[in-house]
Amino acid sequence: MKTETTTSFETKFEEEVYEGLTASPKFLSSKYFYDKIGDKLFQDIMALPEYYLTNCELEVISNHTAAIAEIFKGRDGFDLIELGAGDGKKTKVLLKYLDEHQYNFNFLPIDISQNVLDQLKSSLREELPNVNVYPQQGTYFEVLERLSEYNERKKVIMVLGSNIGNLLHPQAIHFLKDIQRSMVEGDLLFMGFDQKKNPQTILDAYNDKTGVTAAFNKNILTRINNELDADFNLDDFLHWEVYDPETGTAKSFLVSKKTQKVSIKKLELEVNFQEWETIHTEISQKYNDEIVNWLAEESGLKIDGQFTDSKNYYKNYIFTKS
Ligand SMILES: C[S@@+](CC[C@H](N)C(=O)[O-])C[C@H]1O[C@@H](n2cnc3c(N)ncnc32)[C@H](O)[C@@H]1O
Question: Whose alpha carbon is nearest atom 26 of ligand 1?
């Protein structure tokens, strides 16, 4: 059996799967949902009526495009760096406006999924051929280390889709601090935060009736099967969502329906599950102004402006260094 102290893992994925499935309680990181299948499932989620986040943020960006573009504009142009860009559905509204109004900018989408970056680059070549696109594959933290080198002109860092909500507050502060350190005076952070609202609305968004979210959650097991030669039977696990309206934390789990043993050959690991044992896979944190303000203060940032949708479900904030 591999052990963390004696074995060097070939990839971060191997290491984190090992760590999460030998822990108690078990966990896996939601960043591993995204491969070719996961990217497609997430695009399907964005089209679900229950998943209000996409339409709310689309409304914010569509209704305030000109104002956002003016805030982004720099004296010598700007570099627009998007962390966790995905398929760029909402970003394209902004890019189209910036292109049509001849703003001087480069677009640098960053994502852990090479597949989604390839799709984004080729769709932008078709739809907005004049926009300069420089994708970079990597995790937020890896790429942020390199970002401080981008200092020749104004930097606008953008994080949409409430991606920050996948991080618990201490990790979110770490993330925001890294962003803050990569910024110089005049740079901006434009970030979307899903807001606290009727708990049922939130629960439904992560527990759709058609089962797309369940398939998305289980895709992490499919990846372990395919990439680490494992034998998870997806039907033996249940997608389970909870939302705590006090903390604003939604949590996704995979729950083992029976006592079972799963073999992960590439890790030389046998994982035992008791009946109803859980694997925690994702958090989707919800916010209000007070929490966002606190996160900003803890990270050396300040809120310089905000935009919201007509239902006040979702907010995009502008941050600068404090
Ligand atoms: C919830 S989707 C949102 C996509 C896009 N921002 C939007 O609003 O439509 C999260 C995206 O971030 C990427 N991602 C998740 N965790 C990441 C990480 N730790 N580092 C880099 N990218 C990550 C995923 O591959 C995915 O494309």
Answer: 86
Q: What is the CATH number of the domain that holds 144?
A: 3.40.50.150
How far, in Å, from the CA of 159 to the mean position of ligand 1? 9
Judge whether 90 lies within some domain: yes
Stated length of the chain:
322
Q: Which two tokens stand for residue 78?
A: 């700007």
**Which backbone phi and psi does 138 adopt, to 5 degrees?**
160, 170
Q: Which regions in the chain score pLDDT beneath 50?
A: none
Say yes or no: 149 and 38 in one domain. Answer: no
In a domain, 208, yes or no: no
The domain total for the chain is 2
Put residue 130 in one of left, alpha, beta given phi > 0 → left and psi -120 to 50 → alpha.
alpha
pLDDT for 37: 98
Q: What is the pTM of this model?
A: 0.96
Tell me the C-alpha distance between 260 and 268, whole Å: 17
From atom 18 of ligand 1, which residue's Cα is the shortest distance away? 139
Three-state secondary structure call for residue 123: helix
| Residue 249 belongs to a domain | yes
